[in-house]
UniProtKB/TrEMBL annotation:
Domain Thioredoxin: 29-169
Domain of life: Bacteria
Signal peptide residue numbers: none
Protein name: Cytochrome C biogenesis protein
Recorded GO MF terms: antioxidant activity; oxidoreductase activity
Coiled-coil blocks: none
Species per Swiss-Prot/TrEMBL record: Methylocaldum marinum
Length: 178
């Protein structure tokens, strides 16, 4: 192997490294990005288009799955309580279930009391468009559909409340005294 060969190899490695360093953006949606326009169906088969159908509302989108061992399923139920608490201020949670729920799966019965949209992303296509790399993933969109907060992994309902109220009240966490 000649010195010329090693010089070319070193140049190629240097170019690839520099190109990679210039692209320091992480994959997927980031804070400040506009959410993609997507249409999903709810558990009854009704279409919902995001973010168009939720425009004007602060929207917490929760990507989850019943078979996800890292997903706390009770968080979806707790979002119902946050929805009731903040819906008059313009808050709307949306739960997006990865994979098709099976109608005979008794585990879904406890979600019958949920009144906010529960959507189905049967093949994970929408999750990929939103840059979801693992479940659960939660995003908070502002009234215009811009991503303002993003959590990959699990967090407590108190954390979600802080995130959504920070967006809802334009930077101020709502402490109940307004």
């Amino acid at each position: 192997m000649t010195l010329q060969y090693w010089g070319r190899l070193l140049s190629a490695v240097l170019i690839v490294t520099l190109l990679g360093a210039c692209n320091n953006r992480r994959p997927g949606l980031q804070i400040g990005d506009m959410a993609p326009v997507v249409t999903l169906t709810d558990f009854e088969g009704n279409p919902v288009t995001l973010p168009e159908d939720v425009r004007g509302k602060v929207t917490l989108i929760r990507f989850w799955a019943m078979d996800c061992s890292h997903c706390n399923k009770d968080v979806v139920l707790a979002l119902e309580d946050l929805y009731r608490k903040y819906k008059d201020q313009g808050f709307l949670p949306v739960a997006i279930h990865e994979s098709q729920p099976i109608a005979t799966d008794e585990r879904f019965r406890k979600f019958e009391r949920v009144t906010f949209p529960m959507l189905v992303d049967e093949h994970g296509t929408v999750a990929r468009q939103f840059g979801v790399v693992g479940l659960p993933t939660t995003l908070v969109l502002d009234e215009e559909g811009i991503v303002r907060e993003k959590i990959t992994g699990e967090a407590g309902i108190d954390t979600f409340e802080k995130l959504l109220t920070t967006v809802l009240y334009k930077g101020d966490f709502y402490d109940g005294t307004y």
